[in-house]
Structure formats: C-alpha cells, structure tokens
Amino acid sequence: MATDTQAKVQGYSFLISETDPQDIFIPEDLTDEHCQFARSADEFVDQEIMSDIAALEKLDRKLLTAKVKKAGEAGLFMIEIPEAYGGLGLDLISQLVVTERIGRSGGFSVAYGVQTGIGTEPILFFGTDEQKEKYLPKLATGEWIGAYGLTEPGSGSDALTARTTAMLSEDGKHYVLNGSKCFISNGGIADLFTIFAQVDGDKFTGFLVEKDMPGFSVGAEEEKMGIKTSSTTMLTMENVKVPVENIVGEIGKGYKIALNILNLGRLKLGVGAVGAMKDALKEALGYGAQRKQFQTRLVDFPLLQQKIARMVCATYACESMCYRTAGVINEGIQEASADAATMFDNHLATLEEFSGECAINKAYDSECLDMVVDEALQIHGGYGFIEEYSIARQYRDARIARIYEGTNEINRLFITGNLLKRATAGRLPLAAEMQKISQSALGALESDQANDGPLADVREAVFRAKQLFLFVSGVVTEKFMSDMKTFNSQQESIAWLAEMIMEIYALESAQLRAVKRIEADDDSASLHEDVARFQLAESTARLEQNAKDLIEGHFTGESRDANLDIVRQLSRWPAANRVELGRRLAAAAVAAEKYPFEVVG
Ligand SMILES: Cc1cc2nc3c(=O)[nH]c(=O)nc-3n(C[C@H](O)[C@H](O)[C@H](O)COP(=O)(O)OP(=O)(O)OC[C@H]3O[C@@H](n4cnc5c(N)ncnc54)[C@H](O)[C@@H]3O)c2cc1C
User: Fold this and answer.
1) Domain co-membership, 123 together with 179
2) Nearest protein CA to atom 29 of ligand 1, as residue
3) Which of 41, 193, 536, 580 is least surrounded by CB atoms within 10 angstroms?
4) What predicted TM-score, i.e. pTM, was given to this entire model?
5) Residue 4 within any structural domain of the chain
6) What domain count does the chain have?
7) Measured from the CA of 413, which atom of ligand 1 is nearest?
C-alpha cells in the first residue's frame, strides 16, 4: 500500500493507501480566526435563536424571516461568497465551523443551510456573471432569502424524472413553467427559488424564479415531526413566465447542478450533525450530573457512562472525518482559485473528486447523530419524553438528516457505485489492490510503516480493515464481473460494502487525529488515545459483521468456508477494553460538562 504523501490524495484513495497523520486537517488545526467565527455563530444562536426557541418552534414566518435577516446582518451568509459579489470570500473551513455551530439550532439550521448552500450555490457555481451580480449580493446580506425546488410529489430520490415543464414562449423571451414542487425548505419565506423543470419534455434544466413572478404560489406550511422552526412548503407554478436569462447553467444540463450541489451539501450536513451531537451530549451531561437515583448521580452509573463514551466517541469520529474531508477539499479549492477564468469549474471538479467522502460524512454522521440524541434522551429517562426538556426537540430535529440531501440508502448505493465506477474508468487502481490481496499469502500482509510509534497497533488494525474490505469486495465483485447489471440488484451487498467504506474512513480519521495530537504533545494525548481505541472496538465489530454478511450472501459450501476463514484471519484486532476506556472517556466528559475534545473555547 502506498502512502498518500507519495501519491496525491484522491477521492477514495484512503482505501488503498496509508496516510501520514501530519497530512490531514484536524479540528485542532483551526486558526484563531476560524475560532472567532465559531464563537460569533455561537453567540448568534444563543442570543437570537435559543432565546426565542419556543416562539420559533410554532413556525411564525415573520419571526423566522426576521431571524434569517439578522443572521445576514451578522455576516453569517457571506463567508464563502467572493468579495466581488459582496461576500467575504473566505475558505471552506470558515464556512464549516459556522455551519457546525448553527447545527445545534435545529430548524433554524435548515434555513441557514439552505441560504448558504442549495439556495446560493447554483448561482455561485453555474450562474452567469449577470446572475451573480444581480442575486449574490442580496443573498450574501440576507436581503433576499433563497430556496431550492427539486423534489416533486412523484419524484424524490429519483429526482431527475421531475415532471414540471418549461416551454419556450413564441417570442423566445421566456420559458413558461408549469408543475409543482414539494417539501421545499424556506418555501414560505424565500424570495428566490432555483426550480428544476423539463424543457421540451425531457431536457432537465434549472431556472431562477422570483417569488413575485405571476403564476408562482407557495402552499401552506407542512406540519412536521421535527425542525419545526423551518419553513417547508409546496410550490405551484401555473404558466409562470421566466425570462430566458434566468436559466441557470445550460439547457438539459440541470442534472449537473442537482448532483454537484449535493456534494458540498452533504459535507455541510455532516458537520451540522456534529454540532447537534455536541449539543445533545452537553444536555445529557448537564441533566445526568444533577439528577440522582439510588443516591447516585446518573452520570456515575457505569451503564450510563458507557453510553456517554459512545456519544463522545461517535462525535470525535464524525468531527475528525468532517474536518479531514474539508481539509482536502479546501486545498483543492484554494489551488483552483489561482485562475479566475476556470475557478468555478475547478471547484466543481474538486467537489466531484471527493463526492464519495462527502456522502460518507452525510450518511455516517446523520446515523451517529441519531444514536447520540437517542442515548441523550434515554439518559433523561421519562423527562426526556416531556417537551419542557430540550432533548425532545433535539431528538425530533435530528431525524430528518437521514432523509434529505439524498436518503442514506441512496447515499450508500452512491458510495459503493461511485467507487466501482471510478475503478472501472481507471481513476483508482482498486482492482490491482484487490488482486494483490487475493494472491498473497495472508501472513505476509503487513503495513509498510514501521511497527512502532503512537497507536501503532491501531494503525495496523486500520491497515487490516482495508485489506478486509479489498478482499471481500474483490471476491464479491468478481462473481458479477461479467454482469454488473445483476450486481446492481444486489443492494444489500452494495450497502454493506458502503458501510465498510464508511467505517474505515471513520476509524482511520479518528486514529490519524489521535496520533497527530499525541505527536504534538497535547495535554489530553492519553484521552485522544483512549477515544481512538474505543472507536477501534466500535468499528471493527461492525466491519467484521459486514464482511461475514457479504460472504454468507454470495458463497456456499467450501468456498464459503474458505472465504470466511480468510475473513477471520484478517479480523485479528488488538484488544480494546471498552469498560476501562469508556469510564475514562465518560469521566472526562463529565468533568468538562461537555464534549471533552472541544477546540473552540
Ligand atoms: C423537511 C424536509 C425538507 C426538504 N427540503 C427540500 C428542499 O429544500 N428542496 C428539495 O428539492 N427537496 C427537499 N426535501 C425532499 C427530500 O430531499 C426528499 O424527501 C428525499 O430526497 C426523499 O425523497 P422522497 O421523500 O420522495 O422518498 P422516496 O424517494 O419515495 O423514498 C422512500 C424510501 O425508499 C428508499 N428508496 C428510494 N429509491 C430507492 C432505491 N433506488 N433503492 C433503495 N431504496 C430506495 C428511500 O431511501 C426511502 O427510504 C425535503 C424533505 C423534507 C422532509
């Protein structure tokens, strides 16, 4: 296996190479300026959102609009928008630290995410100069609110089959839009909508539609189980005349917008989930420290400490993955920005390169968030079920993250499908690595790296986890080599492979961050070591189960036994005592009264 320092980091290259911890971006690398942004966002959430949360949760469009405008005035929308269009033109990391802090604001974080993401990015990446000049300054300040209309009653996951139509008017000056969109976030408060419609019946195309255009109407608010602060509505278009200059991108190329915009959105969703996890953990720690049963504080019960440790560990793994991914994308974007003429195209190419990692962050982090809010509620006992305690809202707010920005099922199919597509196209030497392992004497398989240094045994386990993935994916895909159509119907296997990919990325990101902190002589180095070992225990159990399921699903008799034997040989993991590790991690969280690895003070 090569190291990623030898070869440039590519999408998915973590699966076939080893990474030097010094080469990844971790939360502890945030600059003072990043931390200042995070603190400003925190202040905004406390002063403007949490102080009014009861009223906001009743979904008062006027109040929500006022809060969105205030966020605009506070400069929270302009971070990524270039200076030429009224923004600050800052790096992706600055945007992500703010997105993370806003992530704890539930429904408001949806309004924020749409404004800075799908409401703005179609214009930012695909708009004409005129469109950018006209709309971006307004979106940057919050003078205008944006929204994105892709989903329709008949097309959700299968979004490109939308039925909304766009016909060119006789004078050639307008497209006339007819159709409806559903579940549109910010629908009831937005001024500008990116709407997708089929030109001449089959050319999927994006249009910029202003709310006052005749024939455009916004439906009633959906009554949702969570994110109640956010506005979600139907949109109806009856003969809406949209000027031809409001086409975003090219006619028939709307899929490029729809698919590319999702990449960054998925990473942002992941980092927002990290913010929500930290918040739920803090809530659980606060409650658990003051509530006593059997004359004992809840946080002193080992059984609850194990839950706290899992929550801390999941947050650490997700946070490590998000900032690692952000680091490589940010680097690509900075390089791409050198040439103004090709800047936006190159940004998109960078996002496409790491689309797999973005999808991993979306699916893995949203599921960790669900585990965290569920356990945080459980620590509250019956009080967790009572609306007076904010954990009930946090629990409800979390659930949507597994559904939008592509459901987690669609993301799983994408993670594996995208990898195999790249391998087939020769973008990643996956097949060669699969072959190496199937031909090798397993005992000879060892990492190229020296077998010492901090967490060397965990690093070795990460190496084995990758070998396990390469072996299992190799033997399973080989069976379908001549018939990929049949393989595509093996959705369970595609999803299990995706789970292995996600787990490897999570485990390795946690291990690399921990080593980087140990090498930096961090005061909490031993806690970083503990959390990496705890993640090892969590990830390897799941990896092994996925590997076994994959073999059992596709082999019988002797080949099944032989393959399972190899799975067992590769699944020799170092010991990780979850009792001791869990108690130490929980003790640190209880003492800190929050996520104990928080970087921003
Ligand atoms: C609160 C909220 C806000 C939203 N905001 C927006 C927005 O601002 N703009 C916008 O355009 N959309 C928005 N959406 C829509 C959202 O993106 C869709 O709900 C989502 O893509 C899923 O589509 P669907 O609801 O039609 O479910 P379906 O596509 O019908 O899926 C139902 C189930 O089937 C599974 N499934 C579907 N296809 C497959 C497959 N090929 N293989 C295996 N399983 C499959 C799904 O994973 C899911 O579990 C929002 C939705 C909600 C609820």
Assistant:
1) no
2) 157
3) 580
4) 0.96
5) no
6) 3
7) 42
